[in-house]
Design goal:
The protein is mostly helical. The chain folds into two domains: 206 residues, Ferritin, core subunit, four-helix bundle (Ferritin, Up-down Bundle); 74 residues, no CATH class. The protein contains 13 helices and four strands. The longest helix is centred in the last third of the chain and has 39 residues. It comes from Helicobacter zhangjianzhongii. This is DUF455 family protein.
Length: 359
């Protein structure tokens, strides 16, 4: 990726389709200014303000209606995009009792209540994913229009997944909020608020891909059901798997975009503060880490700071969030941009983590 400058700020392009986005980037917080653009019309509604209102809406039905209105205005170019709009902290709203993850027992499917609880756990993931994708569109500014299109599209599909699962819960006489949930996905969102590199890597390329790893086992688990809605459950889970491959693929695209932008800024010394996130993970690769799994794996890493090595270091940097399942879904991950070599390294890293945790 080549860098040019405008007004002393580096400009980076992801591909030819993004070279037309006349943007100047600060690649850590992605704060910059548009170059060569006229004044924004003051009589138009503003995109990030409207998105903030969607994020702050707690009723899911109202939230969805507000989201659809926003999308209609966005795609019709009726929203001004003012990247300098103040960025606010928006506390995630969870419409269910919250407990630590290790206090929530896995549901057994041998009872009506157990089936409802298992579906509720999946619905909570989709409910959380709505906020994750909307927040990714809201929080990171001065990016190509394609970026915002991608995460609005992902949010729309997450809404769809949630409503499908809510429909299944309703058939069982239950609803979202009837069972306790954890806040791990929101915790990951809050931990990656200041860096696109972190957000795309940890949340959208990491945790969402872990969901792909789990999907075949969840499908197998539900296939043993002797319940009238079994076929509906399998159909819904199939839709989710199909769409989530696309979501992780978007995470992969923008993870590489953020990484290449940060690497370019680092090599040109254009903005020392812009590479904080990348410097953080590169230092992990260069020093002796206390984590025994990393020390054992280190000899297998390439010395070059390629994307695979950086992602592995990111896994260690955010060790509280497991970014790969015990058995990776190799076929799905390959479709999302992972290489066979990277999948094997990820599996090996977490295999070593598990071994040392048992020791």
């Amino acid at each position: 990726m080549r860098a040019s400058t405008a007004l002393g700020v580096p400009i980076f392009s992801k591909a030819k389709s993004l070279q037309k986005a006349n943007l100047a980037y600060n690649t850590d917080l992605f704060l910059c200014q548009r170059v060569g653009q006229g004044n924004i019309r003051t009589n138009m509604q503003e995109f990030f303000t409207a998105l903030e209102q969607v994020l702050c809406t707690t009723d899911i039905a109202q939230k969805h209606r507000a989201f659809l209105d926003l999308c209609d205005d966005f795609y019709s170019h009726r929203l001004a995009i003012e990247h300098s709009t103040p960025l606010k902290y928006i506390a995630p709203h969870i419409n269910a009792p919250i407990k630590p993850a290790h206090h929530i027992k896995k549901a057994k499917l041998d009872s009506h209540n157990g089936l409802a609880k298992a579906l509720h756990a999946i619905a909570h993931i989709e409910y959380s994913a709505i906020t994750l994708s909307l927040d990714s569109a809201y929080r990171f500014r001065y990016l190509p229009r394609e970026y915002y299109i991608d995460w609005l599209r992902v949010a729309g599909e997450e809404f769809g997944h949630f409503f499908l699962l809510e429909g299944l819960l309703n058939e069982l006489g239950a609803g979202y909020g009837d069972f306790a949930v954890h806040s791990q996905l929101y915790d990951a969102m809050l931990c990656t608020n200041t860096s696109l590199l972190y957000r795309m890597g940890v949340v959208h390329r990491g945790l969402e891909a872990r969901g792909l790893d789990a999907n075949p086992f969840v499908l197998q688990k539900f296939s043993t059901l002797k319940h009238p809605i079994r076929s509906k459950i399998q159909e819904v889970l199939g839709i989710i798997l199909r769409d989530e491959i696309g979501h992780v693929s978007r995470g992969d695209v923008w993870w590489r975009f953020a990484l290449e932008s940060a690497q370019s800024a680092r090599s040109t010394h254009a903005n020392p503060q812009a590479t904080n996130a990348l410097q953080d993970v590169l230092q992990l690769m260069q020093q002796d880490l206390p984590h025994p799994a990393w020390q054992e794996l280190d000899s297998r890493l390439d010395s070059s700071f390629d994307s695979e090595g950086v992602f592995l270091a990111l896994c260690v940097r955010f060790a509280d969030f497991i970014l790969c399942g015990k058995i990776p879904n190799t076929q799905a991950r390959l479709q999302c941009g992972f290489s066979q070599k990277e999948i094997e390294k990820l599996g090996r890293l977490y295999e070593l983590c598990a071994k040392h945790a048992r020791a």
